[in-house]
Amino acid sequence: MTPVCPFVKASRPDEASPKKCPFGFDSQTTTSNNKQQQQQQQSSVVEAKCPFGYDSQTFKLGPLSCVICQALTFQCSRCVPCTHAFCKACISRFKDCPLCGADIEKIEEDEKIQSMVDRFIEGHARIKRTHVDNNVEEKEEGGADSQKNKTVIYEDVSLERGAFLVQHAMRALRAQNFESAKSRLSLCAEDIRDQLEKMGHTSDLCSQLGAVLGMLGDCCRATGDADSAISYFEESVEFLSKLPRDDLEITHTLSVSLNKIGDLKYYAGDLQAARSYYFRSLNVRRDAVKNNPNVSSQILDLAVSLAKVADVDRSLGNEDVAVNGFEEAIKLVEPLKLKPEETGLEQRLVSVLEFLKSQLVEKQAETAL
Question: Which entry of 140, 198, 249, 363 is 20 to 30 Å from 161 by CA?
Answer without folding.
Answer: 249
